[in-house]
Amino acid sequence: MHPPYRSVQSLTFVLIHGAWADTSFWDGVSAELRQMRHTVHAPPYAGHDSDPNRQATHDMIVKSVVRYILEQRLSDIVLVGHSFGGTIIQKVAEQLPERIRRLVFLNAFVLPDGQSVAEQLPPAAQAAFAKLRAASPDDTIALPYPLFRESFANLGSKDQVDWLYSLTPPEPAGPLYEKLDLKKFYSLPTPRSYVYLTEDNVFPQTDEYSFHPAMSARLGLYRLIKGSGDHMVTPRYEPGYVARLLYMGARD
To answer: Which spans of this chain does the record mark as coiled coil (predicted)?
Structure first.
């Protein structure tokens, strides 16, 4: 006897991009998920896309996403965060737990209560980002090409990386250094998944500094989905593959 088979569920995805990106990051993945008959939203947020405010705070970013979900009357959603977007979905979940079906973290930060993104970085990276921030005229951090190429886009060809780098804006620095109160997040029963692209080189992949297991383990009980890929190239150049991984993380 064969095990029961269930066709693809139709889900509502809300996709939250990370730092040094905008909503176009999700264009390919969104198209693939829609081909799979899902509903997809990729809301812009404060300090990014068409918003020129380089002084946007983390709270302003979160309010942008919360407002979008409420204005669109979305419910039973799969809320996906990539990279820095993980911190955003942590805070959105605190405000709208009744509207969220599942949280999915895609190579994303999962902050401990009372800490910031910057505090999760190895000491050498913290020092490098502090220098870049200090040298900025508008309190942003622009990724140097060598860092982007070797850490964020390590699997790409030179042409792919050059194109992606041309689309990489400076990131407002303030939210990366804000310490977040996440006590409520860690009290929520919201189901959660971690999708991990295993060749991501943003972190040195040690037990202390890594997306998995260092970040993912903070989720407590969670579903782990692994696939091959890096931080920026794979989501943009293999969107169908990433869409399938996200669905595996999201489905019942």
So the answer is: none
The pTM score is 0.96
pLDDT tens digits, 58-92? 999 999 999 999 999 999 999 999 999 999 999 99
Decide: 222 and 216 in contact? Cβ < 8 Å: yes
Residues 12-250: name the CATH superfamily. Answer: Alpha/Beta hydrolase fold, catalytic domain (3.40.50.1820)
**Which helix or strand (DSSP H or E) is residue 81 part of?**
strand 77-82
Q: What DSSP designation does 151 have?
A: I
**In 10 A of CB 91, how many CB atoms?**
22
Dist CA 82 CA 61 (whole Å)? 14
Q: Say whether pLDDT at 6 is over 60.
A: no
208-228 pLDDT, tens digit per residue, is: 999 999 999 999 999 999 999
- Angle subtended at Cα 85 by Cα 10 and Cα 202, rounded to the nearest 5 degrees: 115
* 58 sits in which H/E element: helix 58-71
Residue 73 Rama label (left phi>0; alpha psi -120 to 50; beta) = left
